[in-house]
Structure formats: structure tokens, C-alpha cells
Design goal:
This protein is α+β, with helices and mostly antiparallel strands and 135 residues long. The protein has 2 domains: 1-45; 48-135, ATPase, nucleotide binding domain (Nucleotidyltransferase, domain 5, 2-Layer Sandwich), CATH 3.30.420. It has 6 helices and 6 strands. The chain has helices at residues 30-41, 67-75, 84-97, 108-112, 117-120, 126-130; strands at residues 4-7, 15-18, 21-24, 49-53, 63-64, 103-107. Strand 2 (15-18) and strand 3 form a beta hairpin. Helix 1 (30-41) crosses helix 3. It is elongated, with a radius of gyration of 17 Å.
């Protein structure tokens, strides 16, 4: 297996990291970044795509991505404004590049769903807890 990432997407000086190697790649947006990953890491294509999504609300497990899930992730942008938009951009880029490939969202918040209420509500005002905010 190979692990990689593109850093500085949308900025000058973007690069692909594959193992210990840093490869300069043009990545003005997520689709170009994903294309660079595929060109260098998976020239024969891929069988499935997994997307780490920071905020999934009350979702307790990984889910196959469909339009309803995309809308749900979008609705949670106010709770993760720095992360969920980028997560959605990656999902949309992957859908365009390989529309027939199964895609799954893996949520950071799934791990935290097992916390007891006294742990996830600690120091959170009731009005915010009722709106879906958690520790």
C-alpha cells in the first residue's frame, strides 16, 4: 500500500508527498490535486475511495457516499467551517474523476459518539448542546 497527500492545495508551491518523497505538482484546486495523486500513485486506477470527514454530527459509522450524505455533510459546515468544505471538495473531485468507483466517508465524529453525555456536554452551554454542539 502507498500513502500520500497533496499539500498547499490552491496555493503556489503545492506538492505531493509519497512516502519520504516530495514531488512538486500543480494543484490549484482539489480535482487537480487528486489527479496528481492518481498519476503518481495509482496509474492503473483505483477500486474504491475513502474520505476522512471531520464533522459528521451524530453519524456513528462509515457510510457509502450518496447525495443525501453530501447534503448532510454540507449542513454541518457551521460546526466545522474550516474542514467540511474541503472534505466536500475532495468528495466532489473524486466523483468527477471516477464516477463509477465506490466512495465511503469515514467520520472523525463517529469515534466520539460513544462518549457519555456528561463527557460530551461538559462545559457546553445547554443552548449550544441542543443545537448539536459537542465536546
Amino acid at each position: 500500500m502507498l500513502r500520500g497527500r497533496v499539500e498547499r492545495v490552491g496555493e503556489a508551491g503545492s506538492f505531493l508527498v509519497l512516502g519520504e518523497e516530495k514531488i512538486p505538482v500543480p494543484a490549484p484546486e482539489h480535482r487537480a490535486a487528486l489527479g496528481a495523486v492518481l498519476k503518481h500513485a495509482a496509474p492503473g486506477g483505483i477500486e474504491a475511495a475513502g474520505h476522512r470527514v471531520v464533522r459528521g454530527g451524530t453519524i456513528r459509522e462509515s457510510q457509502v457516499i450518496d447525495e443525501a450524505l453530501i447534503e448532510r455533510i454540507g449542513a454541518l459546515i457551521p460546526l466545522a467551517p474550516l474542514h467540511n468544505p474541503a472534505n466536500l471538495a475532495g468528495i466532489e473531485a473524486a466523483k468527477r474523476l471516477f464516477p463509477e468507483t465506490p466512495q465511503v466517508a469515514v467520520f472523525d465524529t463517529a469515534f466520539h459518539q460513544t462518549l457519555l453525555p456528561e463527557a460530551f456536554r461538559y462545559a457546553i452551554p445547554a443552548v449550544l448542546a441542543e443545537a448539536g454542539y459537542r465536546r
